[in-house]
Design brief:
This protein starts with 6 loop residues before the first strand and ends with a helix. The longest helix has 21 residues, at 124-144. β7 (109-114) and β8 form a beta hairpin. It has one domain (7-144): Chemotaxis protein chec (3-Layer(aba) Sandwich). It has five helices and eight strands, in the order ββαββααββαββα. It has helices spanning 22-30, 52-63, 70-81, 98-104, 124-144; strands at residues 7-11, 17-19, 36-40, 47-50, 83-86, 93-95, 109-114, 119-122. The protein has 146 residues and is of the alpha+beta class.
Amino acid sequence: MNRFLSSATNRIDAKGRVSVPAPFRAVLAQRDIQELYCIQDFVFPAISVGGPDLLERYERQISAEDPFAREGNEMSLLIHGGGVFMRLDAEGRLMVTDFIRDFTGIATEVCFVGRSDHFQLWQPQAFHEAQVAAREGRRLRGLQTS
């Protein structure tokens, strides 16, 4: 499988590292992703993590905009100003930096959430609450179309 699916929660160790779940590491290896592009999500208190193709996808959207227009400038501010490159260590761990902690509220555990072509880092309770709200929103919209 070459998609990031499911979710898993892992504890942050004493040195501030967290093990990326094995299925996610397998997808990274299969897609030959060595360097991770990490960006602050636009909607949720989560960090989106993918390969350089994730950054390239956003940059294609930016390049389609007028370079002098507000939209393109705002997108660049979010994509470039809100993103960093990171690497896993030899044991498949990711350093949980202030960039991650400050934006997500992550303290002792990280919830890894598959999002098909990338995955996200969440504070576990925030993910649970967002998932419940999304499920309820879908249920209510389903009732409205009947």
